[in-house]
Amino acid sequence: MINGTAICRVATEPELTKMNNAKKTPVCKFRVAVDQGYKDASGEYVTDFWPAEITGPYATSMYPHLEKGRRLAAKAVPRRQEKGSGDDYRVFALLQLDDIRFLEPARSHQDGR
User: CA 20 to 30 Å from 21, out of 2, 39, 41, 59?
Assistant: First the structure.
């Protein structure tokens, strides 16, 4: 298994839901922006956007602190995800995040989270 540390920014507002399993495990889903550390031919920094999730009780406790634009460091384990069937079948990677450390203070929340 490959794992590492991701230094990234929350790119979308997180969504807290429950998995469709017997335990109804909490899951927090969002996308992260990861800078690649170099510029392209036009002089723009190259950034990749990854789907990310946090699962279990940790998802519930982290959700109120995740806000779009906030920079963080986290243990990141890439996972293979499969969806659909037939012509709609897709395989993609997502980052399973754990041990999150915020690298900047939170802004005030306007949405009551």
Answer: 2
64-68: long-range contacts at Cβ-Cβ below 8 A with a sequence spacing of 24 or more?
Answer: 64/109, 64/113, 65/102, 65/106, 66/10, 66/14, 66/28, 66/30, 67/10, 67/13, 67/106, 67/107, 67/109, 67/113, 68/10, 68/11, 68/12, 68/13
Position 108: which residue type?
A: S
- Is the torsion defined by CA of 61, 63, 66, 67 positive or negative? negative
Helix, strand counts (H, E) of the chain = 1, 6
What does pTM read for this prediction?
0.80
Nearest CA-CA partner of 30 in 19, 43, 20, 16: 16
Residues 103-112: tens digit of each pLDDT: 998 876 555 5
Which CATH superfamily hosts domain 4-102? Nucleic acid-binding proteins (2.40.50.140)
